[in-house]
Amino acid sequence: MIKYIFSKSFLFSPFTFVCCLCLLVATWNAQAQSDESCFEADPNVWEEAWRSCNETTNPNPELDAGHWIQYDFGAVYRLSKSWVWNYNKADALTQGMQNVRVDHSLDGDEWVYLGDFEFAQGTGEAVYGGFAGPDFGLVDARYVLFTALSNWGDEGCTGLSEVKFNLEPQLLQFVPIEFACEAPTEVFAIDILSFEELILWQGEADMYVFRYRVIGEEEWMEIEVDDTEVFLEDLEPNTEYEFQIAALCITENEEGEEIEQLSDFGESYFFTTIEEQEECGYIQSMNFMQFDEEEIVVTWNEVVGSEGYTIRYRIYGEEEWTEEEVDDTWFELYGAWLVDDIIIEFQVESNCEEEGPTGFSESFYVALGDASLEDIEIVGIGDANVTNLDRPMADLQLYPNPAQDMTMALYSSREAGRVHVQILNLSGQLLESMPFTVTEGENRLPITLRDISMGLYILKVIDTDGKESVNKKIVVTGN
Residue 158 sits in which domain range? Predict the structure, then answer.
């Protein structure tokens, strides 16, 4: 439901309904219409509607106190044309708005000036058709603000009856992504136990064929999956494996018949299982995930028999450690200091009920910004896990966050082109993928969350060439 904030001294309760992809907002006795046009005459007598007789502080801090009305649509919509019915009480037509400033906003704090408009005076007649209002030109907004610069001559009060806002239809439906049926190229392998491995990838195919084998063997073991992950069990400890992935896409021919298209297998990827563990052993493998410039998450393999873990970290070269106790096999580190050109050293130990702490693992290093691991002597958990974390060149902000059924991605792109916005769960599973055309610089991308269950997710924007992405965590509050 649309929320209203008024500069007020005399009000009637506002309401709203959707008509022909229009938002109709009024404050008096309107009847629902079924006409095919959003701009036909409204057969109602518009008398008392919204009226303000005392000047109040404007929501736009750039403007002085005055008479104004703010519309809150509850979510971000793409607005085009509008239709306005001015104050129509026959003996008070001079109270109708005349010169009106119109602003719009995504968050209610930062406002964008649309223009100054002259609103025609009401007629006072029983059948009042209104007039064409501001054309918003397909802007994305949650809030619209009408500020009366003048009325039609009344010295005390200013009023307005009704406004209809047109919505861009394609914003209300999911646009399926068009993509080539190709093997995924962004693949991750995560160590779980000595005989288990989790493989994650990103892709948009209907199904995938996953095959793997021990290095040196000829025969492949093949699995068909309808997800972007495979959980491998019964592996050999401390063994190197090779794997490949092919995409299986289902399309229709001109006759409407389903056709399966299998891509070639992609390049080979490799992982090495960790050594067979004794109960409550040492940490053998560590990795990390990046959410944004000021947040990283470090993960490590599960230890059999452990009841918790202690992680410690420090900036490379410093003596003092910072320690934290955690129950899970991951740790979140965030703060503005992470944007500096630094190298962070991590160590983890498992805590067992009977044996107690096992002792800290070897060090795992992450280089931030322009810092380089080549300039230091590394003694840690294998070169494969020594990672250089570069700050993304693109920038991404989400509003609102948390969000219910829609959020706006404010995305700053290095160049014009095509991007894909993806929503993933914390296991890396792709839930939604949406294409957008962007320009160089600031872009506003409306993201639909109606089919996403309540929880914490990763929203990723992949740039034009597919070589760079930027992530943000988003909390979905559910529908």
Answer: 3-172
